[in-house]
Amino acid sequence: MKIVKVTDLGILVVAERNDGKLRRVSAEIAAKAESFGDVEVVEVTGTDRYHPVAHADAVAKWAKSNAGDLVLIGATLNGRDLAARVAAKLGWAYVADCTDVSLASLKEGAFEVKRPMYAGKVRATLRVHTPAVLSIRPGAWTLPKDARDVKISKDLAVDASGEKLKFARFEPTATSSKRVSLSEARVIVSGGRGLKGPENWKMLEELADALGAATGASRAVTDAGWRPNEEQVGQTGKTVTPDLYIALGISGAIQHLAGMTSSKVIVAVNKDPDADIFKIADYGVVGDLFEFLPAFTEAVKKTKAGA
Question: pTM value?
Answer without folding.
Answer: 0.81
